[in-house]
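Structure tokens please, single chain.
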Amino acid sequence: MRRDELVTYLDDLLDIHGMADYGPQGLQVEGRGTVERIIGLVDAAPACVAAAVEHQADLMLVHHGIFWGPTQRLAGPFGRHVRSIVESGINLYAAHLALDGHRVYGNNAVLAERLGLTVVDWWGVTGGRENALVLGDVDADGFFDLLVERLANLN
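Here you go.
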């Protein structure tokens, strides 16, 4: 698949530009123009980049990208980290708050489903997007034991 088509698809699916975040979301580092292998990771730490290279990934799909807060100089450890991504040819795509608040694929929605919660409502404002947080309901009797059991069995 062409990288640009995949990026457009992910941007639209996650409404990546519809939610303000701490740093730029979406394609953070442009790599190869063709994507055949995607690796999903929590973040783009150096060990994660090494794993992506080892698994011959063309695109890293991460929750926590490499750009947070104020602009950083591409020098020292951060500069070496960015250079390692660029030199590998791997594309880096980050979806943070947009992924948290997605009603189907988002962390909040999937966690509620995996815990067996009934979604009662979507509420709150995150990154300028309303209704990005989930309110779940369970039977109060034995809830703590049930929660511990379900968390212990998540794979």
